[in-house]
Amino acid sequence: MGVTRQKHAKKIMGFYKNNFQFREPFQVLLDGTFCQAALRNKIQIREQLPGYLDGAAQLCTTRCVIKELESLGKALYGAKLIAQRFQVRNCSHHKNPVSGSACLLSMIEDGNPHHFFIATQDQDLSNKVKRKPGIPLLFIIQNTMVLDKPSPKSLAFVQKLQTNQLVPEHQKQSIVELKEKEGLVKQEGEKRRKRKRAGGPNPLSCLKKKKKKTQEGQEPSAEKKKRRKRKRNRVKAEALQSVQNNEGE
């Protein structure tokens, strides 16, 4: 295995691990065309693929793929024997089998929740797989297995994900409601109100003003008392003078 090809595969695997959560053992769905190409090119899939993907791989197929190979007769008898060695995954076509390509496409619907790789030589199937984001594609060229580079659909999906454009509106609303439920929004409001109160007047300055007003208010009262006292003294003095004048007469 060439060093350049191994580095190329490692880089692509990093992309799928980081952005689409692919983990070991890697689930690889194979169709009849891939098994036939491996047989013709003397490729040992079970032995060689884990080393190429740099991790444990679980090879699997479907009943529809095996049924299709059986229907094609002796020409693909060897490919059928290879496919029968792999795990058979349940599909939704128990009673009415469909073509291998149609079956594999049904296995990666709804965002490829089982994180399947697709291994095929079928060009039409490959093109349909590339229209779905997050699905690694394997094929055989010149006696070697090749992991295809991420499709434009996968690259665009990751770019949108990184810019947070894939969060639906109802999920954004749920996030806001969850914050309100946990009291996060209320705490932010309280912080703002506290800042406003901190900008008010100094309480000590208010107390000083009140004392000043009290002192100023006491001054007129003291002055009035003095006037009253002088008036009383004047009245007493006039009364005493009047008495003395009467006695002299």
TrEMBL record:
Record bears the keyword Nucleus: yes
What cellular component terms from Gene Ontology apply here? small-subunit processome
Subcellular localization, per the record? Answer: Nucleus, Nucleolus
Q: Which domain of life is it from?
A: Eukaryota
Which controlled-vocabulary keywords does the entry list?
Nucleus, Ribosome biogenesis, rRNA processing
Biological process according to GO: rRNA processing
- State where composition is biased (Basic residues): 224-234
**Residues of the signal peptide:** none
Report the residue ranges that make up the UTP23 sensor motif region domain in this protein: 192-211
Region of interest (Disordered), residue spans = 186-249
Describe the task this protein carries out: Involved in rRNA-processing and ribosome biogenesis.
Give the protein family: Belongs to the UTP23/FCF1 family. UTP23 subfamily.
Protein name listed in UniProt: rRNA-processing protein UTP23 homolog
Taxonomic path: Eukaryota, Metazoa, Chordata, Craniata, Vertebrata
